[in-house]
Amino acid sequence: MKTKKNPSENVSLIFSEYLKSNGLRQTHERFAILSEIYLSDRFFSIHSLGERLAKKKKFVSRGTLYNTLDLLLNCGLVRRHQLGGTTHYEKANRIDPQDYLVLTDTKEILEFSDRQISTIQKNIEKLLNVEIYDHSLVFYGRRKTTETTNHEEN
Q: Please, which of 20, 35, 93, 103 could form a disulfide with 108 given CB 3.0 to 4.6 Å?
């Protein structure tokens, strides 16, 4: 009976094959970065990723972080987003694209998914005779305050 590999093993295999096929070294630091990324479901910055690694006594240079993220972007294991004027990254193992709302007043990033967006994507594919394999939709807003709500009612 075959056993399914857990997702982190699959990700490591994908990264390993990518490195081999491009003649790149498979270093402990690169796989420590990959592992740390895939332990969380949250967005991260280069700075926050470095801090998380340092807390676990896994010290990697800033250059290694940038270079490894570029490799992970190139092999499709990480996504980069410009949200709220800041570069954020996330692991790219989700089946459904996620859409985002950036709250500019609180700097929060909220993820959501709406079936209507999938319907729009399918309509665009039919209309333009294309296959859309990924998308990113970002809304920008701010929390409503009592003053804003009262003002809008007048």
A: 103
